Amino acid sequence: MGDKMRAVDIKGGKGNADALFITEIPKPQPRETDAIVRIKAFGLNRMDLLQREGNYPVPPQAPKTLGVEFSGIIESFGNAAEENFKVGDEVFGLAYGGAYAEYIAVSTHMLIHKPKEMSWEQAAGIPETWITAIQAMYLVGEFAPGKSILWHAGASSVSIAGIQLCRADNASAIYVTAGSQEKIDFCTKELGATQGFNYHTQDWSQQILKATDGKGVDIIIDFVGQNYFQGNLDAAARDGHIVHLGSMSGTKLPAGVDIGAFIRKRLRFEGSSLRSRDTDYQGKLRNRLADHALLKFMDGSFKVFVEKVFSFEEIVQAHKLMESNKTKGKIICTIG
């Protein structure tokens, strides 16, 4: 193949899942701090769907190829890569884009050595979701032991990671919302969340207040946006933090939203993203993941839940499964 590689592209530059196809593109070249990694597996994330549709603000340094998390083997380096990596190392990591391909150029600041106990598929499902959960909980939400927390989309990969982090760090209570009893049971019985609420059949904000004797929760992690904005204000405790990571229901607030809780309860509402951050910021989060979680992955305390593994050539089916919103955990594609 030489200087070419296979990668996923989008017919017309944007479109639905059926617009995805595999083509040949030039193999990437490393910048100074980069490694070239031969990809063994990559994880799907909801931002990939948005980017495929042309609805995601891709950072300027990102290649047009989709995908931000992967596992693989280091093939070569730039001139100023981190010294604790060598050719042939098995790694996993986070990138600005380009993971839906046979090779990726990525800063060594965003690579982690893959433990031998971990499969390629498991490793590929860690970087984006676990680093996002760590960022949302600790850096933005200011989580500390003894605080209570609500994870919306409880069976999503980020929330699955967050629930496990909260349990390990002694949250006083962990609540979730989800769209089915099956997902709620998974969060409570499998992951150890305190209680879950079905957003189709329950007024989850009122149920949170009931469960907390009217106090509310200290931290709320939200991916939904518009439809949950008022409920989040109602369910937050005094001095609570609402961390806004996505707008799956839309960005325009309906008439009648009551923002009085911001002053009455001294609430903080803060949006955040990971992909737009610089490599120094992302590198600090990588170090926190390695220090905080890697040993727990190795001894089985933390688990990567993989819903389904597809081959690289089945990328259309993989995207359609993610769009179904019926998954509990990661969707992974393997190459080779």
Describe what you observe in this structure.
This protein is an alpha/beta fold. The protein is 29% helix and 27% strand. The chain contains 10 helices and 15 strands. The strands form 3 sheets. Strands 3, 4, 5, 6, 7, 14 and 15 form a 7-stranded mixed β-sheet that branches. Strands 10-9-8-11-12-13 form a 6-stranded parallel β-sheet, sandwiched between helices. Helix 3 packs across helix 4. The model has no long low-confidence stretch (mean pLDDT 95).
Map the helices and strands.
Blueprint: E1 4-10, E2 20-26, E3 34-43, H1 46-52, E4 69-77, E5 90-94, E6 103-107, E7 111-113, H2 120-124, H3 127-140, E8 148-151, H4 157-168, E9 173-178, H5 181-190, E10 195-198, H6 204-211, E11 217-222, H7 229-235, E12 236-244, H8 261-264, E13 268-271, H9 279-299, E14 306-311, H10 315-323, E15 330-334
Parallel strand pairs: 8-9, 8-11, 9-10, 11-12, 12-13, 14-15
Antiparallel strand pairs: 1-2, 3-4, 3-6, 3-15, 4-5, 5-7
Helix pairs in contact: 3-4, 3-9, 6-7
